[in-house]
Structure formats: C-alpha cells, structure tokens
Amino acid sequence: MGRAMDAFLRFLESRKLKVTGPRLAIAREIFGRKKHFTPDDLVDRVRLRDGRIGRVTVYRTLALLAESGLLGRLDVGRGRSLYEPLSGVPHHDHLVCVQCGGIAEFQNHEIERLQDNVARSRGFTITAHALKLYGYCKKCRPRLVPGHRKAATASPRLTFDGIAGRHPANRAFPKPYGRPRPLRGPLGL
C-alpha cells in the first residue's frame, strides 16, 4: 500500500491538488483491497470509518485514481462498473459473465505477444491496454439453455402452416442482447 499511496500523493502534487483527509481515507481503503469492488461498496466501507465522507467525494477520488493509473475500471455491462487497484498487481485480463456479472482473471503470454506484434507492425507504442472478454460463465450458460450441449448439436424444426422445416429464427441459443436482467446478490467476487 505504501508505494501506491506515495504514487497517489505525487500525482496529486503534480496536478496541484490538495491532499485531504477524505482523499487519503478513500485511497487507503482502495489500496487495502485486492479484489474488484463497486463504487457503492466503497462508499459504504468509507462511511463506516468516517460518516462525513460523501458519495461525490468518493466518486471524484475514484476518477483521480483511475486517471493516475493506480486504479482500473472494468465495465461489466448494464451500466455497471467495477474497480480494482492496479499497483503491485501483475497485468491480467478479464472474462466477464453478462448474466451474473461474475469476473474471472487470466494471464496469457501468447495474447500479450500477439498484441505486441500487431502494435510493432504498425509502428505503435503500447502504453497500456485492457482485454475484456464478455460471455456466459460455466454456471450461467446451462441455466440459459437447458441441455445446452444437446441443443447445440440438434437440428431444430418448426412447423409453418402444417409444413415442417428449418427456419433461421429457430435458434438453439438465446439472443445475447435480450431484455436486461437485474444483477442479483453479490457479484460472486
């Protein structure tokens, strides 16, 4: 936490911004975490320690920490974002379940190498990147399509005016952008 806090203080100084008690309390709470968190979760945790710190102060400090590169923002869909401290954490990418909002982190050196090759071939210098893959986790996919393995290999048939036949609208898998479903409970983090 010490290096991250020092870097945040240098960032504030470089922008000629005040070092305030609430900013430091929020940064301490963030740098003390190792997992993803929602802004509302952070507001609740910070207010437990100091009830005078407001929601606006938390959101503004989140923006400053993200701008400084010490905090990463992860869009999990449906207008929701999660944050994670980046200081002292090895680079990783994310798998995001669009059903439950769950997140799995992974590292893949081959993907990193391919990204570097693409950038180099175009004379581009990468300063940062984030890879997020969206889809359905192991737990949610079977709930979306019961017997999904069978459904994927079956030949669905529809009847139109008494004539049996295949129709492109008859799909084995659900439409990925159907009616939004509310997130339930903790995000499994």
Written overview of the protein:
The chain has 189 residues and is an alpha+beta fold. The protein folds into two domains: 1-87, Winged helix-like DNA-binding domain superfamily/Winged helix DNA-binding domain (Arc Repressor Mutant, subunit A, Orthogonal Bundle), CATH 1.10.10; 90-146, Ferric-uptake regulator, C-terminal dimerisarion domain (Dna Ligase, domain 1), CATH 3.30.1490.190. 39% of the residues lie in helices and 17% in strands. α3 packs across α4. The two termini are 21 Å apart.
Summarize it.
The chain has 2 domains: 1-87, Arc Repressor Mutant, subunit A (Orthogonal Bundle); 90-146, 2-Layer Sandwich (Dna Ligase, domain 1). 39% of the residues lie in helices and 17% in strands. The chain has helices at 2-14, 21-31, 39-49, 55-68, 109-121, 140-144, 148-153; strands at 71-77, 80-85, 93-97, 103-106, 132-135, 158-160, 163-165.
The CATH topology of the largest domain is given as Arc Repressor Mutant, subunit A
Distance between the termini: 21 Å
Number of strands: 7
Q: What is the rounded Rg?
A: 22 Å
CATH architecture of the largest domain: Orthogonal Bundle
Give the H and E element order. Answer: HHHHEEEEHEHHEE
Sequence of strands across the biggest β-sheet = 4-3-5
Poorly predicted ranges: 150-189
Largest sheet: 3 strands, mixed
Indicate the overall shape.
Answer: flat
User: How much helical structure, as a percent, in the residues?
Assistant: 25-40%
Portion in beta strands? 15-25%
- The average pLDDT score comes to 78
The CATH superfamily title of the largest domain: Winged helix-like DNA-binding domain superfamily/Winged helix DNA-binding domain
